[in-house]
């Protein structure tokens, strides 16, 4: 869903949320990748406080809860996502560990120095990578950890078509080395980074999305806005298939400096 909100800004937000809330996750990722990123985070205690920002319907939240200790506060702008997240937490018997709040990542409800870990899978782009890293740092304890996944260039050069696509949709896309530099400049020690494998896009995100399209179109009676939304998603999938050697999602893990 990374550029959709911008691409389809003229669409009905309820319809967009409905489109994506049908999916187990709203962006590229997998349980395995969440666990891999978690492997770089030190042991957390039962008192640990974790924020899962831009949680969507909780694709990663359950994996986080199953592989950490402490309390997780999951945040999403859209109440529908928080409802789905809470239902999911109940289904997994984790509602005592996971709470959900519908609020913007631009206005987080945490106290300074409260959090041990900030998690944001495929969502920091909504506030912007640099701004998110800088603004959220205040909520981390000294040496608190942050883990975010973010679309990044995988090569130093690339064809004009894909360069223009991303510059239009998310101009903050950058190379991995520049992203790491920005993390350092924002006051973190980079701890690890890794590129999400293709299956996180194709099997875990795009495949279920494509499978849901017929039901979605049926619900909206093939309306023009629904068809346009679907077409934009299909175009995005085509772009990924064509240019996946040039861009991808990268997990960046860092530790607050002071
Ligand atoms: N982390 C989930 C995942 O990987 O499945 C969702 C990723 S989805 C690409 C981005 C999420 O950010 C969406 O659930 C969207 O509703 C949420 N979002 C968008 N703008 C937001 C904002 N200003 N504050 C909080 N969440 C926001």
TrEMBL record:
CDD domains named among the record's database cross-references: AdoMet_MTases
A UniProt-annotated Pfam family: Methyltransf_25
A GO term for molecular function: methyltransferase activity
Transmembrane segments: none
Residues annotated as domain Methyltransferase: 50-144
Keywords: Methyltransferase, Transferase, Ubiquinone
A GO BP entry: methylation
Stored PANTHER family: 2-METHOXY-6-POLYPRENYL-1,4-BENZOQUINOL METHYLASE, MITOCHONDRIAL, METHYLTRANSFERASE
Protein name stated in the entry: Class I SAM-dependent methyltransferase
Origin species: Butyricimonas paravirosa
